[in-house]
Every structure is written in structure tokens, then in C-alpha cells.
Amino acid sequence: MTVADLLVGGLEIPEFVGSECPEGTRCVVTGERITSGVPSGEVITSATTEFLDGFRGGVDGWVSIGAARCFRSAAPKLGNPCGKSTLAFEDRAAWQPLINAESAVKQGRPYWSAVARDVWPAHAGQRCFCLLTVDTKKRLWHKGRVGILGPGMVAYIHDGDVSMNAMLSWPEMLRCLDAVEQTYTLGWSKRAIERGLYSQHTQVESVGIREARRLERMIVAWRGTNEMRFALLIAQRGDRA
């Protein structure tokens, strides 16, 4: 199962008609063996950039039908579904959450902080694709990897400064998220949570040194981890957290 399989299985991506491939053909995007597909030239447009980044097997080969559907869905009129933050599972359950809870509620959309909790442990052990991005115009899905929801999870994280496949533990990330949101709700900035609570002097004075010390002890072990990197991006303040 590839990233493209998970995306086309869970999202509304238009069909794409393929044809029989030469014997022994591999998809130049996913690397999988395919018997039917689409010549790569049919999915490349004037807007396709970074050929070697996307077509790692070469730009003159074949792509799987699933990969072709994902590439061709990158159009404004289709909403560029593969460019959005996504959590898609092998049972075809899929979400495209917003990060900001208030915006999500106004739009009738899911938001990451809630979805991250809702899928655990209901989807534990399932193969999945997780893309968390702040740039919904950038094509990133082909850089991601299929993971398994659980302690050995892989998620693609893109927030401008970081763009990477990150190994993390989903249950541990949720524990980190609880601690981050508790601290964030009390008034600390995400920057202070990431670097050290004592750096936000006015907030330490507001809650008292004893409470600040308790929170710092609760958070310090996660600093520098992928679990905290993920949690900080999706953390929300208030009673929705």
C-alpha cells in the first residue's frame, strides 16, 4: 500500500484512466510494480516543478493510476486535496483537519487537536498517511511515507522551518499534547513552551514560581522531540483543548 493508495481511498480525487504498461514497469513516483498506469508525460503540466524531487525514477517512465490521480488533483478548481493536511487510513477513513480550532468550527471542518485524540486508539495499528502542513499550496504528499498509527508512527511535518518525515509515538504525542495545551491555556506562548517556561518572566510571575516549576518539569522531557514538534503545531487554547 502506497501513500497514493491511501489518498485516493480516503479522499474525493477524480478518476484517471490508465493503460497497460510494459512488462516489469515500476511507478517512477512510488516505486511499486505496476501492470497498468499512465505515462508520466500525461501528468506533467507547466505548473509541475522539481521533477527529480517528485519523479524519483525519472520523468520519462510511467506512474501508477493512483499517483496520477494525486498529481492531477493539484488544481484550484479541484481544491488541491493532496496539498492539504491529511490523516488517511487503510479502512478509507480520512480527515483533512485545520490547525486552528476556531476557524475549523466556523467552517464546519475538523481540527487537528480533536482528530488526533479521536483516532486513538480506534485506528491503532492501521496503516496510514499523515501530513501536517501549514502550506496548503505546496505539493508534499509524494515525499511522505506510509506509517502505522502507534508507537512507531511516521508523519510528514512541514511548517516552513521544518520539512521532514518524522518518526514519533502517537500515544506519547497525545500525552505531550495534553501537557502543551495545559500550559498554553495558562498563558505561555508556544515559543516559551518550546524553549523554556522561565523565559516568559511575566507569566512565571502571574502563576507563581511553584506552578511554573511544576509545568516545566512536566514538559522538559519532550523538548527537542518530534512528539513536541507535532504537538506544538496543533495545540489549542481554551475549553476545546
Question: How would you describe this protein?
Answer:
The protein is of the alpha+beta class and 241 residues long. The protein folds into two domains: 3-78, no CATH class; 84-241, no CATH class. 34% of the residues lie in helices and 15% in strands. The protein is built from ten helices and nine strands. Strands 4, 5, 6, 7, 8 and 9 form a six-stranded mixed β-sheet that branches. A hairpin with a 4-residue loop joins strand 8 and strand 9. Helix 1 (3-10) crosses helix 3 (65-72) and helix 8 (201-207) packs across helix 9 (209-219). The protein is elongated. The relative contact order is 0.12. The model has no long low-confidence stretch (mean pLDDT 92).
Brief sketch in words of this structure:
The protein is an alpha+beta fold and 241 residues long. It contains ten helices and nine strands.
Return the string of H and E elements. Answer: HEEHEHEEHHEEEEHHHHH
Beta-strand content estimate: 5-15%
Coarse shape: elongated
Mean pLDDT: 92
Total domain units: 2
N- to C-terminal distance: 33 Å
Oligomer: single chain
Report the C-alpha radius of gyration, rounded: 20 Å
Helical stretch tally? 10
Q: How would you characterize the largest beta sheet?
A: 6 strands, mixed
Tally of strands: 9
Poorly predicted regions:
none
Query: What structural class do helix, strand and pairing data support?
Result: alpha+beta
The helicity comes to 25-40%
